[in-house]
Amino acid sequence: KRKVIIDCDPGIDDALALMLAVASPELEVLGITIVSGNVSVKEGAENALKVLRLMNRLDIPVYLGENTPLKRAYISAQDTHGMDGLGETNYAAVNEVRPKAGAVKFICETLYQDEKVSIIALGPLTNIAKGLQQDREAFKRLDEFISMGGNYRSHGNCSPVAEYNYWCDPHGAREVYEKLDKRIHMVGLDVTRKIVLTPNILEYMQRLDPHKGEFVKNITGFYYDFHWKHEGLIGCVINDPLAVAYFINRELCSGFEAFTTIETEGISMGQTIVDTMGFWKKKENSYVLTEVDHHEFMKTFLAKVFGADKA
Ligand code: BDR
Ligand code: CA
């Protein structure tokens, strides 16, 4: 089993990613750390707990992280994910366990305590940037780092050039890209936009497991409306679960190595800049994904979360 910390901002697609992570026998999820992003840290933590309750995994601790980006004012994505972050489903709060304080501390301590811990980041990179600021040594022990965020050739989803996670906290993203000193697997919009949850897949999920299928249907309703209004798409793009699936199975995606950084100011704020031509003569710090086998991803998701391989 590979040890991971999932840093996230649940969020509809984060919820699906958490379902996949905790249902995958290949992973040992040591903790879930919450960052402000789609919704506030408090709401995000409530949502993570709701997913853990659904998956019968309330044994996994949830930690509250940074409330605001490093420098920019915080802007949520409630227009996309609903006021509660789970498509305005307003499921009852989990009372049996509560979130703990100190996400950044948890991340640093876990990196010291455990061998070979990886981080899968599914939200703005504020918690990770703070961790690096506070204890850079700890991150030398980090095994692998996967970040859902950014866009190389794809257009943005927050501005013509910027993807939400890096746009929300561009300074945090830049700091992580330039200071982590580890290859960042960038699972950006180039690959995640190809992962579409269509009505027929949703229906099949409900057939396979009515309880979980109903949950996915309920939380994605709002997302469906958003995609229909904005792109005329009947279905919804689910970004975050691909980062988890790719961590488990590298064959799902491929890309190339390059030096990458993030613009922090002006009209291009949050843009991912990939130096494919080596203009800046900087050491490659990222593996930028460009290709994905979307069918294989869906098979993995349905098998692990819904037991489709046993049906
Ligand atoms: C990313 O932004 C968020 O809204 C999603 O949860 C995902 O992590 C996609 O741009
Ligand atoms: Ca997210």
Give a short overview:
Residues 4-298 form the Inosine/uridine-preferring nucleoside hydrolase domain. With 311 residues, this protein is of the alpha/beta class. The chain is built from 13 helices and 12 strands.
Protein described:
There is one protein chain. With 311 residues, the protein is α/β, with parallel strands linked by helices. The protein starts with a strand and ends in a 5-residue tail after the last helix. The longest helix has 22 residues, at 210-231. The chain has helices spanning 12-23, 41-54, 78-81, 103-113, 126-134, 136-140, 164-168, 170-179, 189-192, 199-208, 210-231, 240-248, 294-306, and strands spanning 2-8, 27-34, 62-64, 100-101, 117-121, 145-148, 184-187, 196-197, 236-237, 253-262, 272-275, 286-292. It is 41% helix and 19% strand. It has a 10-stranded mixed β-sheet, sandwiched between helices. A two-stranded antiparallel sheet has the order 8-9. α1 (12-23) packs parallel to α12 and α4 (103-113) crosses α5. The protein contains 13 helices and 12 strands. The structure holds beta-D-ribofuranose (BDR) and calcium ion.
Strand order in the sheet with the most strands: 4-3-2-1-5-6-7-12-10-11
Shape: globular
Counted beta strands: 12
Query: Low-confidence stretches at least 5 residues in length (pLDDT < 50)?
Result: none
User: What hetero molecules are in the model?
Assistant: beta-D-ribofuranose, calcium ion
Indicate the mean pLDDT: 97
| Helix vs. strand class | alpha/beta
The radius of gyration computed from the alpha-carbon positions, rounded to a whole number of angstroms, is 18 Å
Amount of helix:
40-55%
Number of helices: 13
The fraction of residues in strands falls at 15-25%
User: Largest beta sheet, briefly?
Assistant: 10 strands, mixed
GO molecular function: purine nucleosidase activity
Pfam families: IU_nuc_hydro
GO biological process, one term: purine nucleoside catabolic process
InterPro entries: Inosine/uridine_hydrolase_dom, IUNH, Ribo_hydro-like
